[in-house]
Target: Site-specific integrase
Amino acid sequence: MKGSTHRRCYCRDPETGRPLGKNCPKLATRKHGSYSVRQELPPREDGSRRSFSRAGYETLKAAQADLDHVRALLGLAESDDPEGIALIASMLAEVSEEKTPLPDVEETRRRLKSGQDLIGRITVGEWLDQWLAAKRIRRSGISRYETDIRIHLKPRIGHLRLDRLRVSHLSDMFTAIADSNAEVLEQNAQRKAAVAELATVPWKGAPHRARRKAMKTAIDAMPAIRRVTGPATRLHIKATLRASLNDAISQQIITFNPAAHVELDPVRKPKALVWTDERVAKWHRTGEKPSPVMVWTPEQTGAFLDFVAEDRLYAMWHLIAFRGLRRGEACGQPWSETNLDAHSLTVSAQLVQHGWQVETSEPKTDSGFRVIALDDDTVEVLRRHRERQEADREKWASAWVETGLVFTQEDGSWLHPGKITDLFERLVAASGLPPIRLHDLRHGAATLMLAAGVDVKVVSDTLGHSDTRITRDIYQSVLPEVGKRAAEATAKLVPLQRKAEAEQARKAAKKAREAQARTEKKGKRKKPKK
Model:
């Protein structure tokens, strides 16, 4: 196909105002004007002609290089590939019209072979929408991805071209999130301070009422209290983007994943702490929890179970406290997978919450499918619960909702996991015990098993963990008495002279006390003579 380079200028005839074009006398001077290229392209489907044209080259060499580039792109499609020829021709016509840079030859070759858009104009936001629509995972996972995309990724980097996304773009995004956090914290502090000041203004008196009205108006104009984007959320945002870009790489849309190389501050998971006497005393004084994750001692767990002994869902609290079921697993446990004669139950389903909607689902991972052994006391508790449920079924008669679940509402329908959490918090508050979350009962079950000397692999399998390291890292909260026994056992391994001397002194002191006690006892037996 025909193609050429030529030099032209934009001088106009001073009398007519028309462009002089090639007739400009100044074109004899090398530095006057600029070079242009024109390459004929394969015609459109209707037979109409089209071409690639570009002007503004300072040198003939630069113009010829682009003309060669265009011809190399045209040569990517084989002569017997009319579809490929048409795609490249359309791409070049669009590049010419929009005056965008010529695409790389090898990149275009790869895109042509993989059937992708040759120009690669898809934006990050468009790709994230496509990627999310193609995901076939649990609704809870989709919801998490959708939140990251809608709130963080699309507003900040959604406009960028996918193939031009760089690590620097992501670093800027997370910096902007950190800056936004600082702004949110400042606005929250201002609103709280204004509310606190409002509480100090008396209600009576016209001046006070006028001041309160003005302050309320000012408070209403302030931004509402908002949550910041914490370290864990930022890591999840990065994970969402990284997963989507990995899929783009697998589809050969891009070749580099910048999300795999952006650095974020590590997230430290809160360690579970036991409610010792000292921590309980401080909580009574200040109302503060030492850690977001707190675990009851065996005595505190027993006190709670005694307090809720007459609660309709006592069996659920008992099962979670001793066997460590998750909230959704307990709510979704069917009687068909609960074998009381064999002292076991099989976790094969759960109730999951999406917003406020609830649906049944399988366990999230293979390790979630598991068989849990039951002790005699737990079996007896579940049998009494079943008898009460049978009585409820007879009471409700035809209005009974047959779900086949172990734990239900009074009419047999599903328990709402969110309402179960609320109920647990109310029961804990009424018991007067230091606060824990419902999930912390699961932490407590793990702690009790480990304190009882149960092998960590058995504990991990009971809890449904995929790796025993998860059990050690998260759930191994050592109870004070267990720690003391471990410390004493360790200390006895090292023979020290001062230890032997201290032991002899302790024994001598004990003998002296015993001798003194015997002497005093004999003195009491002797009656004084009158």
Notes: The beta strands are 3-8, 34-41, 50-57, 273-274, 294-295, 338-339, 344-347, 350-354, 357-361, 370-373. The mean pLDDT is 88. The chain is about 55% helix and 10% strand. Residues 167-199 form the longest helix (33 residues).
